[in-house]
Amino acid sequence: MSITYLEAIREAQAKLLRDDERVFIYGQDVGGTFGGAFKATKGLAKEFPGRVLNTPISEDAMVGTAIGAAINGMRPIVEMQFADFSSTALNQILNNAGTHYWRTNVPVPITVRLPSGGTKGSGPFHSQSMESIYAHYPGLIVMTPATVEDAYTMLIEAVAIDDPVVYCEHKYLYYHLKAEKLPTEGLPTGKARIAREGRDLTIVTYSAMLHEALTVAEEFAAEGFEIEVVDLRTVKPLDTDTVLASVARTGRLLCVGESFPWGGANAEVISRVTTEGFHLLDAAPQRVNAKDTPIPYHPNLWSAHRPNAKAVAAKARQLLRE
Amino acid sequence: MLQTASRSKKSASKKAPPRDRFLEAFRWMLLARTLEEKLVSLYRGGAITGGVYIGKGQEAVSVACGLVLKKGDIFAPLIRDQAGRSAFGEPLVDVARTYLGSRQGPMRGRDGNIHRGRPLDDQLAMISHLGAMVSVTVGALMAKRSKGEKNFIGLSCIGEGGMQTGAFHEGMNIAAVEQVPLVVVATNNHYAYSTPNDREFACADLVDRAKGYGFEGYSIDGTDLSTCLDVIGGAVKRARAGRPPQLVVASVLRLSGHGEHDDASYVTDEIKREPFAQDCLKRAEKLIVDLNLADAETMKSWRADAAAKVDEALTTAQKEAAPNADEEDWCAISTRELADQAE
I want to staple A294 with a disulfide (CB 3.0 to 4.6 A). Which of A50, A124, A264, B200 is the partner? Predict the structure, then answer.
């Protein structure tokens, strides 16, 4: 048996619905026989009547409704059809869910699933990676699973957490990533994972870019360089300790993320390492992001806009020379 | 199903609420007015930081909202709902503590003035972004339904300003889609801060939107307490009985600035002469006198009682410690082990 990243997300939701009557799924096209634009909820509406509900195209009200239900004891999962559309729910996520516990002492256990990141031909409005926006605001946990196993266990964990969780699932990984079986447990939330050990350079990454980084590490191994790859798993909280420990071993840091370059997860990692571990560095830290333009439609442009193994390798080579 | 303004007015005038309920409502209105006058004077004296936002002129609508709800109902009040909040059960000291920033208040100095609530007691805590609380109320009602609770409703307040937000439209639509027992009470006080109705919307009557949303709609004179109690009470009854969501649009004039920093010099003399510009509290008082529902001595004792309650709440809060930044834990999530270590 093999299971894809997308199936892991579906299976996690099936388990959550089965195990916890407080859970319901709320989103556009998630219900009926359709099961979501990406089929992440396929079959669930039939299996769990009344708990997998189609909504109007009203991202703000979808999240607002989830907040109200969560305050009153439910554990809603909101599916955004694409991460990009969560921009129209920013107010509810940032200003309502994100402030609620701080203001009232009452936590808001909602999970907002964001089908994130670029795929070929998807263009400016169906490709975005929004983790850095959500991580910037207080009151939210931001997950960015990069493996089938994490997609499964982290979604279950997201719903169990009493605070709002933005769960960024990568659309490219939906079908491209497979595992033999689903795990029964994962690493704790907030703990980064050393995806590959090395001694010459640390690449800190998350989500789909993990796999570009691993490809580069494999290439460089043939040349005798050992690259360590750290998968952040959650960008907030950020596991600074694991990152610093890795940089202590390698002396070099390259951050790789798919979001836009200004600010963001990469910038935050570099800031923390230079602030707290300046003495560990043998070279100035570097980063690879998408370009500072909207995400292009045509594959020729898109493949140059999105960070890929080639771009990561070029930066890694430059860093290793210093 | 859409009831027009004239029809609802007609039905309201036939059936006045019982005397006791009218007088109870009046006393909550009086308490709110007394409290807010005191808050204004504290603000002018520099004792309140930030702002003071009062509901002068809107107490009749607001009190009707708070008074017709029962325990177990959800109330989502907004900026000018002091009367309704008190009638629903908000302790007066919560108001004093929030305005004065006491650590013992529900917001503990982390949020102020009208941004307060006790969500676990079904008093939702509004955010400043208008329209956002309608869908939150919908979700709260869905949760209650899902848990098998019975006979509950939700009431969400809005102004004509907030009715123009996308969040409001989305919230109204999703309420009707989910068929939750919701009443939305919209108070048209004729100004969104300084902007008059003609730059806020262009439909003939805001209540006409009810049909478009899938609500049943009613227009009322928000300066007439009897009408407010009757029509808002009726809407609540219908929602409780399983009718579609209900929209009540009340017409009033905001008898203050947007906040106390605002002299409201933009309010025209012409609009101040409109029937909806009457002071609902004075109207209610006149009715009490005209119909001899309470004698002068009783009215006097009610005023004294309101003043004493306000004084007690404010004195309590004034004695309490303000928040201390060094003792604040600065953690925005409840799962403390997942707090990020950013500095």
Answer: A124
